[in-house]
Design brief:
The protein has 10 helices and 12 strands. It is α+β, with helices and mostly antiparallel strands and 307 residues long. The strands form 3 sheets. Strands 2-1-5-4-3 form a 5-stranded antiparallel sheet. Helix 10 links the parallel strand 11 (260-266) and strand 12 (295-298). 32% of the residues are buried. Residues 303-307 have low confidence and may be disordered.
Length: 307
């Protein structure tokens, strides 16, 4: 067998591979490591990881090479490890890498060093970020930045399960900007978009941390309010209404005051999202008929929990 066969195999791996002794001195550095890091083998072999050549950092920016890095931990306890870190490329930028570390033992079984295999995670990280962004966009309303109608579905199912299993109440508030068509007709659709975005932010600021609000469509918003009794439900509805009433919006044509009409209903164990939203929607229209800028709520106690 060719004496340098194993070295040839390692040098032709796409991944970076390097070997250290018990003192973390680098004994071997393959071509994959050269390609990913920009450092030639001659620049790092014989030097110690503690020299902070690659200056590994965590996703939070914490330095690893001068402290307790995964490699030094494996040298101490002999346990293999995997991690995601960022190495310092010779050209001065950071490269996200996935690292896998295994101990190297001598004939007696004592730890004599460790081998680290690392791969460039740039493409995977970019893909994860793109998938995360696509997921965010699929659940977000691009105009207001709030969740869209689809985003409420999962939250509703979770809260309904809490109601059925533990009797934890929740309700839905349906809100509609009063006389919004007049805003578009008088000030234009760009101004209308600014009003929608501003009202969305105001509604969100009026909520408790566990509440959620989404843009249901057009000038309509839906808020899901968990863990409430009748008094709290009414307080949240009124706070949202009053926040909008008290928050004028500056437009190119001047300052505009807007209001919302609110309808709400506490959930029943046999509700669907559509049935609950429909009850709240009907009460919102009654609120408009009562003169707008008011809230009407159905706070009937939930039926006995279904088995």
């Amino acid at each position: 067998m060719k004496p340098d066969l194993y070295k040839d195999i390692l040098d032709n791996l796409f991944d970076g591979v390097y070997l250290v002794d018990q003192n973390r001195r680098i004994l071997y550095w393959n071509r994959g490591a050269e390609r990913i890091s920009g450092y030639a083998g001659a620049e790092v072999q014989g030097r110690s990881c503690a020299d902070n050549i690659l200056m590994h950092i965590t996703a939070d920016g914490d330095l690893l090479c001068l402290g307790s890095c995964p490699l030094s931990q494996t040298l101490r306890d002999g346990l293999p490890r995997e991690d995601e870190v960022f190495l310092h490329h010779k050209d001065g930028h950071r490269v996200p890498v996935s690292v896998r570390i295994s101990p190297v033992r001598d004939e007696s079984g004592a730890i004599s060093g460790a081998v680290e295999v690392f791969s460039d995670a740039t493409s995977r990280r970019r893909l994860q970020e793109e998938l995360g962004e696509l997921k965010r966009l699929s659940l977000a309303d691009p105009l207001t930045g709030l969740g869209n109608r689809r985003s409420v579905v999962h939250e509703f199912e979770r809260r309904l399960a809490e109601l059925k299993r533990f009797g934890i109440n929740f309700g839905v508030l349906f809100l509609d900007i009063d006389a919004f068509k007049r805003v578009n007709d008088t000030h234009g659709h760009d101004a209308g978009d600014r009003v929608l975005a501003a009202v969305g932010r105001t509604l969100k600021s009026a909520l408790r941390g566990q509440d959620t609000v989404c843009r249901w469509g057009g000038e309509e918003f839906l808020a899901l309010i968990p863990r409430v009794d009748e008094a709290t439900f009414r307080n949240v509805a009124e706070r949202m209404r009053r926040f909008v009433e008290a928050t004028p919006i500056d437009l190119p044509g001047g300052r505009l005051n807007v209001t919302v009409s609110v309808g709400g209903a506490l959930a029943q164990p046999d509700d669907t999202l559509n049935s609950l939203a429909s009850r709240a929607d009907a009460l919102m229209y009654k609120a408009k008929q009562c003169g707008r800028n008011c809230s009407l709520l159905d706070c009937s106690p939930p039926l006995e929990n279904l088995p």
